[in-house]
Write a structure and sequence with these properties.
Blueprint (H helix, E strand, L loop, with lengths): L1 H9 L7 E5 L2 H11 L3 E5 L9 E3 L5 H16 L4 E5 L5 E10 L3 E8 L3 E2 L2 E2 L11 H17 L3 E10 L5 E9 L1
Helix pairs in contact: 2-3
């Protein structure tokens, strides 16, 4: 997740404000104070909601950090976390891509906001929250990222969509 966030930032794809490589609660507190609450603590080495904790106030951070760190270590063998601003309410929108290792194309989006325990329950295409202008912007960002990574094959570029129409890169997943 951390390296893909760096790649996204390098090619101008927006990422959620945050900080990576957090190894202790004191640094997490400094970064959360800088970003502003609420924040999410997330496992640097994995996903699926494992090692993720919401923190609404400074007094909750130390306990949430230790809990997230333990779960991240047990799940992924990596206790490092990153902290990012919680975008809420947010929608989860994925852009489908195909790449040949040099060029990439976007094939539309899926709405994946209906989730349980951070796992998608229903995927809907096209997303009812995405208009033509936003679709073009998200597809352009997904293609830039895929081409920068020299992506070959089918995949999805996942984004958070904020209530103001801003979108932020989450991750890329391969597809068959």
């Amino acid at each position: 997740k951390v390296s893909s966030r760096r790649s996204a930032a390098r090619c101008g794809v927006p990422t959620v404000p945050g900080a990576e490589g957090i190894e202790d609660a004191a640094r997490a507190r400094v970064e959360a104070d800088r970003i502003g609450y609420p924040v999410l603590l997330k496992a640097a080495g994995g996903g699926g909601g494992r090692g993720m904790r919401r923190v609404d106030a400074p007094g909750e951070l130390a306990a949430a950090f230790e809990s997230a760190r333990r779960e991240a270590g047990a799940s992924f063998g990596d206790e490092r976390l990153f902290v990012e601003k919680l975008v809420e309410p947010a929608r989860h929108v994925e852009i489908q891509i195909l790449g040949d290792g040099r060029r990439a194309i976007a094939l539309g989006e899926r709405e994946c906001s209906l989730q349980r325990r951070y796992q998608k329950v229903i995927e809907e295409s096209p997303s009812p929250a995405v208009d033509v202008k936003l679709r073009r912007a998200m597809e352009s960002a997904a293609v830039r990222l895929a081409e920068d990574a020299e992506y070959a094959g089918a995949g999805t570029v996942e984004f958070l969509l904020g209530p103001d129409g801003s979108f932020y890169f989450l991750e890329v997943n391969t597809r068959l």
